[in-house]
Write a sequence for this structure.
């Protein structure tokens, strides 16, 4: 939760980019010093998971992340709150969760926002794959953020590079 509060403070203060260093999750993480990295931009937002635009007032920015075998894309853009908590807004973040709640939150977000990229299986079940790491990341990992300031001009020059 601390990471989200820090990122929200960054978002309201000025333009910035943050490198998110995410510790590995599960028992595997205790034995292997690997993890994941993502980039958070507080003034660039996701028009879709594969298209960026400048944020509108009140939007919190986007996390750009890369995972193996995510529908053939090199990167995917997810809004900050869904990336961290698998919900659309901060007021929907549950106070407590267990594995079944996390799975339900992720699947609901997938069905509402990512279904074209990650469709149901032929028997209408949740698909397997790394898509689950794109939403609700804070439920599985400790996330450290390292921020640098950017100018609005830098953000505006960067956004078209990935669109």
């Amino acid at each position: 939760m601390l990471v989200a509060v820090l990122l929200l403070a960054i978002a309201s203060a000025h333009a910035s980019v943050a490198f998110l260093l995410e510790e590995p999750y599960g028992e595997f993480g205790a034995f292997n010093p690997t993890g994941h990295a993502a980039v958070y931009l507080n003034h660039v937002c996701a028009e879709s998971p594969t298209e960026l635009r400048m944020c509108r007032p009140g939007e919190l920015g986007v996390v750009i992340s890369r995972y193996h075998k995510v529908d053939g894309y090199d990167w995917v853009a997810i809004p900050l709150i869904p990336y961290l908590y698998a919900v659309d807004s901060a007021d929907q973040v549950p106070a407590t969760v267990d594995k079944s709640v996390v799975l339900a939150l992720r699947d609901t977000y997938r069905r509402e926002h990512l279904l074209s990229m990650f469709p149901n299986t032929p028997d209408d079940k949740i698909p397997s794959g790394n898509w689950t790491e794109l939403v609700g990341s804070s439920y599985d990992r400790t996330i450290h953020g390292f921020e640098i300031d950017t100018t609005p001009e830098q953000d505006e020059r960067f956004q078209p590079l990935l669109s």
Observations:
- Residues 30 and 142 are 12 Å apart (CA to CA).
- Strands lie at 16-22, 36-41, 44-48, 51-54, 62-65, 76-79, 143-149.
- The first strand starts at residue 16 and ends at 22.
